[in-house]
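Researcher: I'd like a structural prediction for the single chain below. Treat it as a standalone chain; there are no partners to consider.
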Amino acid sequence: MKMKTIHILLVINDVIHIELLGQAFENRSSLMTQTTVTNLIDARACLAKYSPDLVVVDYDLMDGKGTTLIGADSAQVSIPVLVLTNYEDEKVAREVIKFGASDCLVKSEATLVNMPYICERALRVWRYIREQKKTGEVDPILTYYDSLTGLPNRVLFKDRLMLEIAHAERNNTILAVMFLDLDGFEEICDTLGKCIGEQLLIEVAKRFVNTVRKNDTVTRHGEYEFTLLLPGITHAEDAAEMANKINETVRQPITLESHELHITTSIGIALYPVDSNDADILLKNADIAMYHAKDQGRDNFQFYKTPLQSNAYARMAMVDDLRKAIKQEEFMVYYQPQMDIKSGRIVGMEALARWRHPDKGIVYPAEFMNIAERTRMIVPLGEMILKTACAQNKAWRDAGFTPLRVAVNLSDLQFNQQNLIEMVVQVLKETGMEPNLLELEVTENTSMRNADASSYKMRELVDVGVRITIDDLGTGLCSLSYLKKFPLSTLKIDRSFVNEVIFDVNDSVIIIALIAMAKNLNLKIVAEGVETEEQLNFLKQQDCDEIQGFLFSKPVTADEFEKLLVQDKLL
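Model: Treating it as a single chain, here is the predicted structure.
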């Protein structure tokens, strides 16, 4: 019998999470298809068009809350819905469940990479609950026991687990929680029917009970999932020994109605207090370990391990931290002086973001800017940097210092946002800084992505009174013909050419050509990344206008920059 393909609708607002989920479904399930959208409008259209079996939706979407996709009447929810949140929030979880969602999950590496399994289980539990409801009124005893196997159910398991945790805490002992999933059970049901499947569950339940100790608790957790509570163990090896016994017992053939059946189980193990002292988290960690056992080929057990800091996990953690950082104003602006080569004096500065991470200390842009761009968090972050830099420059102007230009980088996303002009005008109005003291830096590649549109946008900015700089000159595809069309004031030589200018003839030739081009276009030219006297002398000989780099100063805080101004430090 051919197994039915499950269709999942993913409503996810983050490109990194979309990428991880796509890889998870591609790698782990040939019996699942998925449609991915990023907003509620497209999601509603897909619900009508595809009639998916299950929905996974972000709680926070660009056009509203994911819970609105479920509807107002939780009784009318016709398919399981899993809601993903960025943080553990009891209030949000209650709201999600009230709307009729099957579960509220906190996004993590384990959650996303195991989403195919989570979806399969959600469907099984959904079907299991629906079948229970069809029987009408439930006997009070079934509140705590499974009607098919007679085992305790998840409600009673949770009660016993909390009691045993309290007992273990008092007696300073260890307990283990196991999550068991029957490998291949669904295929047996699809081939031989539901009746054989139920008989198989009854037989497996008996084997579990006959294998464990008298004071252990075996529970039917879902359609073909079981949990096991082992209190009072002294070593992790005790849990491993029990898991081996269970695997060996289940592995033995089972004969039902002349069919010899072979089935195995994948087991995940979490330990109290090593992996958590919370009942829900222990069960969740055992569940995660069970997924790992399946990844290792099934028919084995695995202990829970803290997720490795893979690139994907690190990126996801960074996304969550970035959201918190912007909300909690953890970013600050550093300033790197720009020096006039002839006078040796400070004539401007570049504003650069620094993140005061509560655990990691100062985090540099190379570690977070790319993710901020991909998740669109660069927009509020960029506006904060611009506003802070302009306000600080105005404060120095009001304090009597010589007027200085402040250069602020615009990312590709910022430069192309529709309200850029309005945002810049508003910032200048709020801070009171003269527009001609603001330089907006656009990379060569950004300016050339749509050169005609870039030229128009630049002219709008120039009309406001600000200056435009092409950053990273020499690294992109900007042609002389378009440089002539752009209303520029400055060209900035990328540090990669300055680094090797003394030792690499090609780099020196490129710099000579770039400086000559700037002079022919009547543009100021700035070399960044100047770190040695030899580099400075070469740039002087080629009549470069300005430099910035560690030779004079690294990027510093506003207070440290002000000390440089007070000292009137020279190059």
